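**Paired protein data**
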Amino acid sequence: MSDLGAGFGYLMKGQRWVAQHGRWFGFGLLPGLVTLVVYAGALIGLGYGADDLVGWATPFADDWSSPWQGLLRTGLTALVFVFGLFLAVITFTAVTLLVGQPFYESLSEEVDRSEGGEVPESGLPLWRELWISARDSVRILLRVALYGIILFACGFIPVVGQTVVPAIGFCVSGFFLAEELTAVALQRRGMVLKDRLVLLRGRRLLALGFGVPLVLAFLIPVVAVFLMPGAVAGATLLARDLVDPDPDTEPRPATAAGGDVPPAPRAWSA
């Protein structure tokens, strides 16, 4: 359980880092502001249109008497909006990181530089980094969508669907949010998506301690924008210690089981 507290500690360290480096905090705000405007419009549209969508999808309930029709459609409308919010929380980070790739790469490198030691660089052109980030984000989103569908279906289970399922949903969101954020630093260290997932699964509680509080905070859209620079900084600090716990040794990617990952050239293949 100590890993939960340690994960939250990295989140706080990241926020302190950007607070002490005000220029980088402002620099890291820009991508989040752009993404926020787009997502706010999408969620407002979903809020206004969810009831119409549910009404269209449940024609069989048109002749139901009160209160059964209202209970069914109100419950489904709430589930649709929660599902949309669930996807928004996950995709917000992916889209923001994609939009802000140059910004967050620079911020992450500065965190590495300020902490001392080698500052890994991918050595790839920007277009190639964007392609890799977009490809990995799609793979993560497909996983999230699968979990989202399963959890959405489980939401109809009485009691469990209103208590256990939301808690599991936050944990799923937190884990993949941690993966998206640490990817900025781990990609520069030559780690492919598969190896990053293995690394984080080996320290699942650490990832949840970092990611779940962010998911809860990101439910407030404006908060997400202001926390993103510190989240990237904290994820970089977390990635540094996951890959190379001893600061006196040269950074070296390692899997969660302690073995070496494939060399960097493979990381950029396919």
The longest helix spans residues 22-57.
